[in-house]
Amino acid sequence: xxxxxxxxxxxxxxxxxxxxxxxxxxxxxxxYSFFDIHGEFSxxxxxxFFTPVYLKLTLSSxxxxxxxxxxxxxxSYPTAYFLSKTKHKQLWxxxxxxxxxxxxxxxxxxxxxxFGAYGAANNFLEWIGIGSRQLLFTDFxxxxxxxxxxxxxxxxxxxxxxxxxxxxxxxxSNDLGASKSTTFRRVILPLTFEGVKxxxxxxxxxxxxxxxxxxxxxxxxxxxxGTAIEQHFLVTQDWGMGSTIAIFLILIMFVIIRLTGFxxxxx
Amino acid sequence: xxxxxxPAAKIFLMVVIxxxxxxxxxxxxxxxxxxxxxxxxxxxxxxWYRELLGDTRLLIIVLNTLVIALLSALFATIFGTLGAIWIxxxxxxxxxxIGLNNVxxxxxxxxxxxxxxxxxxxxxxxxxxxxxxxxxxxxxIPIVVLMVLPKLSEMNPTLIDAAKDLxxxxxxxxxxVIIPYITPGIxxxxxxxxxxxxxxxxxTFFVTGNGFSTLSIEIYSMARQGISLHINALSTLLFFFTxxxxxxxxxxxxRGGIRLGGLRR
Amino acid sequence: xxxxxxxxxAIVLVSILILVTINRLNLSQGYSGADTLTVFNWGEYxxxxxxxxxxxxxxxxxxxxxxxxxxxMLTKIQQGGTTYDxxxxxxxxxxxxxxxxxxxxxxxxxxxxxxxxxGRFMDLPFDIxxxxxxxxxxxxxxxxxxxxxxxxxxFTSWDDLWDPDLENGILLIDGAREVIGMGxxxxxxxxxxxxxxxxxxxxxxxxxxxxxxxxxxxxxxxxLMANNEAAVSLAWSGDARDIMWENEALTYVVPEEGSxxxxxxxxxxxxxxxxxxxxxxxxxxxDAEIAALNTEYVSYSTPNQAALPLLPAEMVEDERFxxxxxxxxxxxxxxxxxxxxxGLYNELFLQFKMHRN
Lengths: 267, 265, 357
Fold this sequence. Notes:
The structure holds three protein chains of three kinds.
Chain A: H1 2-7, H2 12-33, H3 44-49, H4 52-83, H5 89-97, H6 104-115, H7 120-127, H8 139-163, H9 167-175, H10 180-191, H11 193-208, H12 212-216, H13 225-236, H14 239-259
Helix pairs in contact in A: 2-14, 4-8, 4-11, 8-11, 9-10, 13-14
Chain B: H1 7-30, H2 47-52, H3 56-89, H4 94-106, H5 109-123, H6 129-154, H7 157-165, H8 170-199, H9 202-207, H10 215-222, H11 229-256
Helix pairs in contact in B: 1-11, 3-6, 3-8, 4-6, 6-8, 7-8
Chain C: H1 2-29, E1 36-42, H2 48-58, E2 61-67, H3 70-79, E3 86-87, H4 91-99, E4 133-145, E5 170-173, H5 176-186, H6 196-209, E6 213-217, H7 221-226, E7 232-236, H8 237-246, E8 251-253, E9 259-267, H9 275-286, H10 288-298, H11 313-316, H12 325-329, E10 331-332, H13 338-354
Helix pairs in contact in C: 5-6, 5-13, 6-13
């Protein structure tokens, strides 16, 4: 027994982290969610969540998060795939991560400039003959910037999966007469599925609660659950309702994890 | 895998990289603007860079930001990797633990910040360097776990069994088999943790105090008065400094055979 | 394993190096000294040269920390853990902080320069007798617009925003009190109205504004207006003043129906450690000459009457930012409406944001 405890000591920091920084805050949120704005015990917050306003919010959060994840995937997979074939792939990979280290608010301001009526994007549209149009504060610019933010998070796990492939498998597939596309579909894609799944999780989950850029880039035309929570915590100081929405977000996330569930060991 | 890269693929990569760098070029260009803001380029000036010289307060803030990012990413990587190995070895409740792991990723920063603040004040931890460091470690752990886990599940379990059969100790299995295999995941986790730390505003705001400040706090609280261009100049310098570091690191790693993400087998 | 260890050691070494450097720098700046004063203010909302002058005159080292919203500042002060000696909240936040007993009464005999403040801005409902707060800057909410882009439009009334020609042309502020208040004002109601029917009418009216609303933004509206991205914006006068330096075509007007009068005020929160130093700092900032210099730097409207003659005439004679007494009569200060009403305002604002025609 004692030996087993010592053997499992390595997971102690992680377990302590889960207890203090995850379980404790969840309990705190749960506790707050049962108090109304006057500080009295009630279930009103849960009732309020099921009113059209919040249901609509939830739906639109889902829709945008799904869209952002899909587009990120469509861009990231080929990027990661081509990257893994370049000569200096490590260097290129680093060069893709580096832009994400520049402050997000500054980059958002830069995007406001780029997408502006007289910005670079419109100049480009003008130049290729499409003509300038309203880009800022549209769904397009919102999704674009969100994808911009998340793409590096998606590329990394996919790149690692592709790069970890055993080249012998691909050679074998080719030797057995499979076409390039068949090899890709039947060999590469299934073997990199773990990486794709991770990429989707690290994009979809935070995308549900995106907030700052909903205001900066979408001009509050897109509102997510994150925006609503932020408002309740900071502006209204209605921590009860804020906590309730957060609890629902966490529940939704658990459902997603279950659905995309982890495969059995070694399967 | 060292197949030829088609021209179309090259163009695709170039476009992706170009877009990733576009807003940064924009910031760099405006750092030379003699007009006071990021609107309307009036003329070339180095004033904003000159303003940076001798601004010790800002230098301290930059260093604070860097040290918090490096240390928090380091600790998060260690704890997160161990956590991922633990999750991998779990027989039951895997999904529950992964769910708990992801809670901080789905929670808006404001909630994380506020609840950490409550935790720290209950625990009587003085707000400042350590509270910020702890929080950054805390919110970076999940991304590390998520980056390491897929590498672990890709690993062939017979590898471990084989090592054990050959008489390797648990420590030997960990350091000689598991860690080398998941190294790309560990590095990916580290870099993503670095990103989280450098980008964070809301959590840091709540848990900082007693004069400790980071670059994000400085930039966000400037928004009301308009972001001054010397922040652009500063970001430009930091950005090119990072690029140079990346270059140096790459040259060293090429010579010394240390590879970043790529475990070529 | 080797490369993981190498990376590990390299990071530890670099971190130690940085920590040592920070320590050195902190020592050279005197931040570790005993006599310090922590000021909690909005970013870029003070002339740092004046802070240095204060440090030289008193020997106190000032630690300057910043926040980005009143509410965020409140949360920090509520929780404690940091010694903030001075904070600069807006007026509605002072009422809230008083309710929660977070402020320390000011000792007026230590603030002889308080006499410099214009009587109009003293003794206001949010702090009768200025027992807890001293005005720092003040302003209004109004319409910022670009006559060059809208040559045949004039803005004198809130109703002018409902002009169908302005389709997709207006920027609003991301603040429930400001936007709902605009709706209330345009209907002739008070900004502090708590009648649910009136609020419903205001929402109805605002929903009709939706086609004209380009975006609901925060501080970015300055960048957007400076870039001619929109021709009209709801704006705080302080921001308006800033953007008008940037883009000289713009002008600002306070609608005739009335609007909001706001204040940012210096207070000493309960978290204070150096109460003596905090009074010295407030008194220093109230000095006519210092206030004038600070006003030139920040460019918001100063409540310091003694500072006005020291400022450029075109600045203080500008009625857009120093409105006549007659207009000031029609301005209202936000009252603390209580949590429930504030909740309702926010809920209505959320509905307005989600409204689509």
